[in-house]
Amino acid sequence: ALCAAADPWPHPLTPPAFSAGPALPVPGQARVVSEGHPPDDLDRSDLWLIDLASGRAQHLCGAPGRRDHSPAAHPAGRGVAYVSVRADWDQLCLVELDGSGERALTAEAADFSEPAWRPDGKAVAAVRTRAGRADLVLVDAVAGGVTLLASGGVWSRPQWVEGGALAAVHEDHRTPPHLVRGEPGIGKSRLVWELR
Q1: Cross-strand bridge partners of residue 137
Q2: 91: β partners
Q3: Contact (Cβ atoms closer than 8 angstroms) between residue 113 and residue 129
Q4: Looking at residue 49, what is its pLDDT?
Q5: How far is 91 from 93, CA to CA, in rounded Å?
Q6: What does the pLDDT read at residue 189?
Q7: In this predicted model, what pLDDT tens digit does every residue of 63-113 receive, in sequence order?
Q8: Which pairing describes strands 46-51 and 123-130: parallel, antiparallel, or unpaired?
Q9: pLDDT(180) > 50
């Protein structure tokens, strides 16, 4: 729904049968990307581009029985990285804002989640989970190469911060969740905040 300051009553942007997920703004545009769940296929979620002025929804990607979810808009508004179930694993994928160029970026026997574009748009930070471990990784946005940034325990919520650093939450069997700030490529990280 869209709320304006002059008229705070929500105005629906999608049809009543459209079960929409969170709206993710596209940088520099009056459009959002949202997950849509058709009522007749509970195993499906598609990604839609919704124009905030007109309410026009454009299908970006999705297929029967497939879940496309967790969108992350390119920092220059050029496309969307998202998670899609491919061959029984959650892989990182890309699609252009006109729905073209859909492709898998990763193809590992692992589940990828929580994509976050690096500010220069050349790579995506994500969490890669396999065998009960959730590692923090960096995925090249062109070639799809995966670089391990931090392993061990469980990593979540990667977010890029000022100066090219990456902040993420880490926990393991010995420590409670704590926020860690790291600088990929430099190899140094530091504890920012810890729940006590």
Answers
A1: 126, 148
A2: 84
A3: yes
A4: 95
A5: 6
A6: 52
A7: 998 999 999 999 999 999 999 998 899 999 999 999 999 999 999 999 999
A8: unpaired
A9: yes
Q: What does the alpha-carbon distance between residue 85 and residue 89 come to, in Å, rounded to a whole number?
A: 5
HEC secondary structure over the chain: CECCCCCCCCECCCCCCCEEEEEEECCCCCEEEEEEECCCCCCCEEEEEEECCCCCEEEEECCCCCEEEEEEECCCCCEEEEEEEECCEEEEEEEECCCCCCEECCCCCCEEEEEEECCCCCEEEEEEEECCEEEEEEEECCCCCEEEEECCCEEEEEEEEHHHEEEEEEECCCCCCEEEEEECCCCEEEEEEECC
Are 125 and 149 a contacting pair, CB within 8 Å?
yes
Structure tokens, 87 = 């061959």
Residue listed under structure tokens 């390119």? 74
- For residue 9 the two structure tokens come to 């009553």
Dump pLDDT digits (tens) for 21-76: 888 999 999 999 999 888 888 889 999 999 988 888 899 999 998 999 999 999 99
